Amino acid sequence: MASFSEDSHNPFSSCQTTYGSGDSYLILDILPKDVADDHFYNLKHEIQWNEMYQKGGKVPREISIQGTIDNNYEPLYRHPADEQPSMVEWTPISKLIKDEIEKRIKQPLNHALIQYYKDGFDFIGEHSDKTLDVLRFSNIVNYSLGSARTMILKSKTHDGRKEKFKLPHNSLFVLGWKTNREWFHSIRQDKRANNIKDDDERAFDGQRISLTLRTVATFRHNVTGKLYGQGAKCKTLAELEQQETVVENDDEKLLYAFSAENKDPNFDWDKWYGNGFDTINFKVLNSISKT
């Protein structure tokens, strides 16, 4: 698997506009317009959309989790959720998009959280992506199809300064490692009447599909449930094969680590995540968070 460092050369360093901590970019017109238009409708219909639950309620988006599955090992991206659908192999249009973006950013991608916003009332609250399982210092990218929505970055420092910009149809937002650590990101509800929205915000009947693509470095066997890799206790498959079965309840520790990453602009990855976790039952995690 590719390796990165916080000082790795970014292929988009020539872009004029940067966001957040200076390592995030917006790239327009990833695909020819007619191809992107077709991809929106084909992707919407080829995916079997699912619900996801968090903190006891349904999240205001429909989702699909897709990725590269190899010998029953699938990339595992953990984040606070009560339950989420199982991963499936790339659907045809998703794979076409993933392959094109890999060429653009020169980074292998093996995991996608695909989300369908049916209208302006669907949203995602402010958060930082959890990086326990994301290959360290790699970029997280979000490809947008459909109606334009506004991304909001908010600094985690006391000044709480904000940056707002549109995510247009057929654009790619590259979220750098430092920006994810030092800023929240969100897409708020847009309750404005259609007659005061811009044309690109009314396009596609207000519907949007986003593909959040990551390079994930933790893997789960989809039959046995065993984990290995960056975010697990066993860092290699060889270690996993030699491991004796040991049950350790580290649910609460992982919850606290997620909370720390979501709040601290100076989050110490090695301190909180370095030893790894084998917890994957987020229903348990959220029951702890309410006590």
Low-pLDDT stretches are 283-291
What is the number of helices?
8
Q: How do the SSEs run, as a string of H and E?
A: EHEEEEEHEEEEEEHEHEEEHHHH
Give the class from helix and strand content and strand pairing: alpha+beta
How much helicity do the residues have?
10-25%
The tally of strands reads: 16
Strand content: 25-35%
**Main sheet?**
7 strands, mixed
First CA to last CA: what distance? 40 Å
Summarize the structure.
GO terms for molecular function: dioxygenase activity. The protein has 291 residues and is an alpha+beta fold.
Summarize the structure in words:
One of its GO terms (biological process) is DNA alkylation repair. Residues 108-223 form the Fe2OG dioxygenase domain. The chain is built from eight helices and 16 strands. The chain has helices spanning 33-46, 92-105, 177-182, 199-202, 237-242, 251-263, 269-273, 282-289; strands at residues 25-27, 53-54, 57-58, 62-67, 73-75, 88-89, 111-117, 124-127, 140-146, 149-155, 162-167, 171-175, 183-187, 208-214, 218-221, 227-229. The model is unreliable at 283-291 (pLDDT under 50). The longest helix has 14 residues, at 33-46. Strands 1-12-9-14-7-4-6 form a seven-stranded mixed sheet. A four-stranded antiparallel sheet has the order 8-13-10-11. Strands 5-15-16 form a three-stranded antiparallel sheet. With 291 residues, the chain is an alpha+beta fold.
